[in-house]
Amino acid sequence: MKTKGWQKVFGFTLIQYIKTKSFIVGTIVMCLIVALLAVSINILPALLGDEEEIFGGNEQEPTSTAAVYIYDECGALADEDYGTLSALGLKVTETELTAADMMERLESAANEAMILITAQESDGQIYGYNVKTYYSPDAEDEAVDYITSITAQTVDYRNLLNAGVTPENYALTQRDVYTSKVTAGKGEWNMFESMLNYFVPIVVSLVLFMMIFAYGQTVAQSIATEKTSRVMELLLTSVRPLAVVIGKVLSMGLVCIMQFTLVGTVGGIAFAVSAPFGIGGELMNIMNNVSAVTAENAEIAAALENTIGSFGILHVALIFLIFILGFVFYSLIAALVGASVSRMEDLPAAMQPYSILGVVGMYLAYFPVIGNLESLESGAASVNGMQIFSYYFPLSSPFALPSALLLGHLSMVEVVIAIAILAAFTALVAVLVAKVYEMIILHNGNLLKFKDIIAMAIRK
Asked: Please, are residues 342 and 228 in contact by the beta-carbon 8 Å criterion?
């Protein structure tokens, strides 16, 4: 049989690779980096911002300036409004200076601000108000924004009262109007579902690209090294050429799975250990106590439930199958590239077409999400045509399908069809390898191009 002896190549390659110092050190470094990232993602938001603000609590009142001088040149405010502003944290201060003199004073003042209120008029009718805040160089931006915002709201409040709106009915005039566009027959995402549908495909495609593409390059480098060092000639005395590529592809696949499982486990443990001290614990409380949280937190719970609530063993198995098919697909191509070179100096040039294929596949899974940003921002649950194409195109489907499965962008039937297409193209590449690999691995001379390899397959 042409594949007889692949087990020996598999075992030899696996042991030789995992015991190298570069692999051991690289794995340790990756584990440390991922653990640090997991802890940082969990704890940093809680350290840098108020947890209540992150999860929909009340906004923290910013520090006010030492003194606030108000110049109302159009009578937009009533006397009681100054007391309201003081109660809201503005240190309203009286002065005999004119507005022009105050502007000059602020250039050297310490933590002070001046608010100038003027009317916008046309034909003797007021159609708007200008609320302009001047502040000293050392005033905090957050405090200045708060002063400006709360003064503008007070001017708006007084304007409505002057127009006949009673204080009791004022709250009814402050209802916000939100707009969105939703294709008929599609669902609608809340803000957090839109965020998940934006970031998950990008993160998943990048991670899978690193796993599949990086280890595929390792297959090519390993075969090229053994061929150019004449080790391959000794190896072929006891093992058929096709068995060599099968053994190396499978061993690198197992190494990839083992390494990323270890790194993922370390990252998961780090996140779980730090969860009680950061946003992880808060998210768990939200999921476990949906009825007791704010409306915004209920949206977070709904987003998590809608995206990962139905995720089960079948989904994990399908994602694993997609990864295996994608890895074999790209690794077989890489094996042909590695076998086509006669000198190690030619390997970078030979890898360029392979690199282009991988980058095109990753970008097809990555950029359609960015192209659909308007839909994601509006909360409309829609997937564009380029995204659908990336799920079925074999170059991009290994990077795009897992996130589509996770987020529910495709039905189970559609996922099976996409996997079948990927499996069919993987089988075609395997047939191509089986036809030409023996000729390529024994070739010495000029660098073989892809068109040369295809021509060999057609002739054989």
From this structure: yes
User: Quick one: pLDDT at residue 185?
Assistant: 57
Q: Beta-carbon neighbour count of residue 106 at 10 Å?
A: 18
8 Cβ contact list (under 8 Å, min separation 6): 238, 239, 247
Instruction: Please give the mean pLDDT across all residues of the chain.
Output: 78
H helix runs in 309-395, sequence order: 313-339, 347-371, 373-378, 385-392
Tell me how far the alpha carbon of residue 288 is from its chain's centroid: 25
Residue recorded with tokens 């400006």: 148
**Distance of alpha carbon 423 from alpha carbon 429, whole angstroms:** 10
For 289, the 3-state DSSP assignment is coil
User: What is d(CA 78, CA 161) in angstroms, rounded to the nearest whole number?
Assistant: 10
Determine the pLDDT at residue 293: 47
Domains of the chain and CATH, by start: 6-53+189-459 (no CATH), 67-174 (3.40.190)
- Write the burial class of residue 359 (CB in 10 Å: 0-12 exposed, 13-18 middle, 19+ buried): middle
Give the tens place of pLDDT for each residue, 284-333: 565 555 444 455 555 555 555 555 555 568 878 888 899 889 888 888 88
Q: How far apart are CA 320 and CA 317, in angstroms?
A: 5
Q: Are 323 and 212 in contact (CB under 8 A)?
A: yes
With beta carbons less than 8 A apart as the criterion, state whether 399 and 362 touch. yes
- Residue 286 is encoded by which pair of tokens? 């939200």
For residues 301 and 193, what is the distance between their CA atoms, to the nearest angstrom? 10
Q: Which phi-psi region, left, alpha or beta, contains residue 448 (left: φ > 0; alpha: ψ -120 to 50)?
A: beta
Predicted TM-score (pTM) above 0.85: no
Owner of token pair 């443990």: 269
Q: Residue with structure tokens 């991988």?
A: 358
Does residue 327 sit in helix, strand or coil? helix
Nearest to 364 by CA among 201, 245, 192: 201
Residue 110 has phi, psi (to 5 degrees) of: -110, 110
Average pLDDT over residues 353-359: 85
Residue showing tokens 């692949």: 6
Cα–Cα distance, 361 to 333 (Å, whole number): 14
Q: Residue 393: how many CA atoms within 13 Å on its side-chain side? A: 18
Answer yes or no: are the C-beta atoms of 220 and 347 closer than 8 Å. Answer: yes
132: β partners: 116
Tokens of 57: 């609590």
Q: Angle CA(426)–CA(261)–CA(302) in degrees, nearest 5?
A: 90
In angstroms, the CA 224 to CA 230 distance is 10
